[in-house]
Amino acid sequence: MAGRQRTDRRPDTARTDAGADRNARYTVASLLAALVPVSLARRAISVTVTADRDVYDRGVPVEFTVTFRNRLPVAVAVPTPHQRRWGWTVAGELEASDERRYMRSQPSVFRFDGGERKRITVTWNGRFERTTDRHEFVVPDPGEYEIRVFVATREGRYQPSDTASIRIR
């Protein structure tokens, strides 16, 4: 039946000239990720955070780069209890704010292919957000501050993370 298209396969499955599913590697990767124990998957992820400078003037935005890397040659999946897969803090305050964060309680998964690196650049505006009496942004006092980046795993579990220190003058 020349000229007819085959419609008995999923439309999102592409085929190569050899007839093999081009998306089959994702299925194999997902299968391999499912075989990696969660405790090993959490430990396979490394986190690195680096600020673009060591010293900042008060109120000046701080740019930092976050790199997540799967050290294993196979795909891994790290479950998270909420939609947040990762986060950052300044001086222990999530996203440099005292505002309460409402995250959907629906679990999520932070997925990595074998050896994959994810690099993200974040800019903190250089101020702490305060929401108690009135909503305002406060310039921090001069001193040393720690930026911490983490994978948002369940409390009490190993949490891949890294820190960078900056000085505000």
From TrEMBL:
Residues 34-169 form the DUF7974 domain. Residues 1-20 are annotated as: Disordered. It comes from the Archaea. This is DUF7974 domain-containing protein. It comes from Natrialba asiatica (strain ATCC 700177 / DSM 12278 / JCM 9576 / FERM P-10747 / NBRC 102637 / 172P1).
